[in-house]
Design goal:
There is one protein chain. The protein contains nine helices and four strands. It is of the alpha+beta class. The protein has two domains: 63 residues, Alpha-Beta Plaits (2-Layer Sandwich), CATH 3.30.70.100; 112 residues, Homeodomain-like (Arc Repressor Mutant, subunit A). The chain has a four-stranded antiparallel sheet with strand order 2-3-1-4, sandwiched between helices. A hairpin with a 2-residue loop joins strand 2 and strand 3. Helix 3 crosses helix 5 and helix 6 crosses helix 9. The termini are far apart.
Length: 188
């Protein structure tokens, strides 16, 4: 019988590799190591759980026990994966996508998320979409129209307004700042 565990702050490939290494040290065999969730083949003992929790915390990761925290982390991971690690955002409403992915009613998820995090799921999505826009602007592979299309904005104006509301800067000005900073570093 396998054991599922949930890990907070697990947001990158590097985190996945660290978790795999920690499981290996404890003699545990993993079936799944994804963002925020691992599944091991064995029933994990209390001693192994305590040791894993201790080892993960040294790397800034947290093994979670609380059901609400686990649900919040699942929501976070679905949103982060959806925005940062997939090439195409889902065509359906985010609420439907998140609800289907996690298996709970969206209103229930939204209420718990807001209660615990102090912001709405929608605000969390916007923050991450703007972070993704920043990344794409810096990589300079796509223009603003392509970025707005990729992230399902209704228009470039909508993206620009949301970007300015969150960062205080226009996307164009943000990109110019990055280019100036890069140029200044090269001049040193």
């Amino acid at each position: 019988m396998s054991t599922k565990l949930f890990i907070k702050y697990m947001v990158s490939l590097r985190c996945k590799l660290m978790v795999k290494e920690e499981l290996k040290k404890l003699g545990l065999h993993y079936v799944i190591v994804e963002l925020g969730i691992i599944e091991v083949l064995e029933n994990i003992t209390n001693q192994q759980r305590v040791q894993l929790k201790r080892n993960l915390s040294k790397s800034g990761l947290e093994l979670m026990d609380n059901k609400k925290s686990i649900l919040i982390e699942k929501i976070r991971n679905v949103i982060i994966e959806m925005i940062h690690y997939t090439d195409e955002l889902p065509k359906v409403n985010y609420s439907d996508f998140i609800s289907k992915k996690i298996g709970y009613d969206y209103t229930y998820l939204a209420n718990i998320f807001s209660e615990v995090k102090g912001i709405t799921i929608q605000q969390f999505i916007i923050i991450h979409k703007i972070e993704r826009v920043k990344e794409l602007l810096i990589y300079d592979e796509l223009n603003l129209t392509e970025i707005s299309h990729k992230l399902h904005y209704s228009s470039v104006a909508h993206l620009s307004n949301q970007f300015k509301k969150v960062t205080g800067l226009t996307p164009t000005f943000y990109k110019q700042l990055k280019e100036k900073r890069k140029q200044n570093l090269e001049d040193l």
